[in-house]
Amino acid sequence: MSLNCVILDDYQNVALSLADWASLQPTVHTTALTRHFDHEDELIRHIEHADILVIMRERTPLTAELIGRLPNLKLVVTSGMRNASIDLHACAERYIAVCGTASSSAAPMELSWGLLIGLARHIGLENQALRNNGPWQQTVGLGLQGKTLGLVGLGKIGGEMAKVAQAFGMRVCAWSQNLTDSRATECGAERMPSLHALMQASDFVSVHLVLSERSRHVIDRAALAQMKPGALLINTSRAALVDQQAMIAALQSGQLAGAGIDVFEQEPLPADHPLRHLPNVLATPHLGYVADSNYRTYFTQAVEDIQGWISGAPLRSLL
């Protein structure tokens, strides 16, 4: 038996060096694609003979249509144990196994703070001016001590955000549909009675919810209108948690002073998208989980998943 394994969207060209793919030989031949394919026909030309696909969340969606054009596909391995961009029903109908890997929440939490501090202290703008011989000191930054961080969601990442905020001497308040007083107390946060109350109280708002139909556009035009003058919004979770058009309008008008963003409705972000050009936006290209520790886990466990599937061992199944 000889199987073809293709790793999709290996943007940094590191996947083959971070795990022992050679241990799968001679049964499995592995290749990595280092660029993203926007057009399905072009993608199909590169993966139509794949028996196994290794994918990253939110990079290339595995739609029913795409799965239907991959007659040899037998196994899909994704980073993490949640991937809304895989049509699991289509995989089940084809008896395609779908499994995942562990994933640490430390990296996205750290990036959230990087964006928050970078935005608060105008690091991007001041660095650009310094490199281009521009004005020496042109902004007054926002200090964190004594300010209020509002957390929309107080799960695993939100709870870690609260701990860091306390180390900075910040007040922490939190809200979500299911947040309890005991969870808020456990995290050292004040549970707010409503989202609008949180938006009104916060100098910085950071979003940490799982995307669902209930949470889609939870940060809408009305919620944004409640934010303090000068307040900043951070989103490293999912783009659709925030009404993107309402956020862009608020940024353009100055109603929202700034936003630190790592997630977008379309990725890669189109070249002419306003979020690439607004001066009060600090944006990164979905780097939340992109850290050495996570990548080693993803690819090492991907190899383990493939080995387990070949041997008939129990899988970290998403089905």
Automatic annotation (TrEMBL):
Residues 30-317 form the D-isomer specific 2-hydroxyacid dehydrogenase catalytic domain. InterPro entries: D-2-hydroxyacid_DH, D-isomer_2_OHA_DH_cat_dom, D-isomer_DH_NAD-bd, NAD(P)-bd_dom_sf. Residues 114-288 form the D-isomer specific 2-hydroxyacid dehydrogenase NAD-binding domain. Belongs to the D-isomer specific 2-hydroxyacid dehydrogenase family. This is 2-hydroxyacid dehydrogenase. Keywords: NAD, Oxidoreductase. It comes from Pantoea rwandensis.
